[in-house]
Write a structure and sequence with these properties.
Layout lengths: L1 E5 L3 H13 L3 E5 L2 H10 L4 E5 L7 H10 L6 E6 L3 H5 L7 E6 L3 H18 L4 E3 L2 E4 L4 E4 L2 E3 L3 H11 L8 H9 L9 H14 L7 E4 L3 E4 L3
Parallel strand pairs: 1-2, 1-3, 3-4, 4-5
Antiparallel strand pairs: 6-7, 7-8, 8-9, 10-11
Bound molecules: calcium ion.
Amino acid sequence: MRILVVEDEKKVAAFIAKGLREENYVVDVVYDGEEGVFMALENDYDLIVLDLMLPKLDGMEVLRRVRNNRNTVPVLILTAKDSVDDIVAGLEGGSDDYLTKPFDFAELLARIRALLRRSQDQKITILKVADLTLNPLTREVKRGDKAIELTSKEYALLEYFMRNVNRVLSRTLINEHVWNYEFDPTTNVIDVYVNYLRKKIEQGHKKKLIYTVRGAGYIMKET
Ligand code: CA
């Protein structure tokens, strides 16, 4: 599950990102509305945490632009108490919610989970690269008709690759997204896991899916 946090107060953004990463969400953080719109439209997020008072574009404008692109990603708005009435009218029931500042992390997490559950009930997006498929809801991974068993880290790594097809992923990016800074990046843990994953998804198949990009990292692509 991948979450975008758009929040200009760096302390608040860091607090949210840290907490969500501890819950095994993959988190991207940006600090203004323009970046927020760009990232939201560029990437496939499962949810956006959106502050209302932002530099460049305010939160409601960010939400409007995202929705104008027929993007139905669930959005949780963070707002001060006195502007609640103004925003409620602009929210879509079912896909948006709001939380007033200051908030407890537990409350934020509960709202996020509720929004994710609602959106998952509405649509299950199966990720597909060549004949490899991954269902983020059931966590089923298949190559053709054959189910593949993965450990939780291998699964997280594969989901990250499949959500970033045709993009070179550096070890630093992979570390940030999949390991959440849990280990010393000078070790070769990532290479070891990429090799485990390759064995499981490529062995017995002619078509390779993950390639090494010398000096840069790895890329998943269909050739
Ligand atoms: Ca703000």
